[in-house]
Design a protein that fits this description.
The protein is built from 2 helices and 4 strands, in the order βββαβα. The chain is α+β, with helices and mostly antiparallel strands and 96 residues long. Strands 3-2-1-4 form a 4-stranded mixed beta sheet. α1 packs parallel to α2. The longest helix has 18 residues. The protein is globular and about 35 Å long.
């Protein structure tokens, strides 16, 4: 799976405490946008924060001129926080 400038890769990483998301252009080797729950001031359930993370990364993508992307869940199953990020990004207008 590779991302380009027009269709970057949205990758999700989750640790025990936080969730991270990045839009990556693999051709140029650059990160277009990044967001994490660590930087958020809100506290609450990890799944709810992951939803806010998905909306935040979609907004950053729009500012960077990105409307479509490829979702990279890594080694994680598509449920829980990973699913929440993807669905919130789609709901915010990012086509994955």
């Amino acid at each position: 799976m590779r991302g380009t400038a027009k269709k970057p890769r949205l990758t999700v990483f989750r640790s025990n405490k936080f969730t991270y998301a990045q839009l990556i252009d693999d051709v140029a080797g650059k990160t277009i946008a990044a967001a994490s729950t660590k930087a958020m001031k809100e506290k609450g359930a990890k799944a709810k924060l992951a939803e806010k993370l998905g909306a935040e990364i979609a907004e950053k993508a729009k500012k960077a001129g990105v409307t479509t992307g490829v979702f990279d869940r890594g080694a994680y199953q598509f449920h829980g926080r990973v699913k929440a990020v993807a669905e919130a990004a789609r709901k915010a207008g990012l086509k994955l």
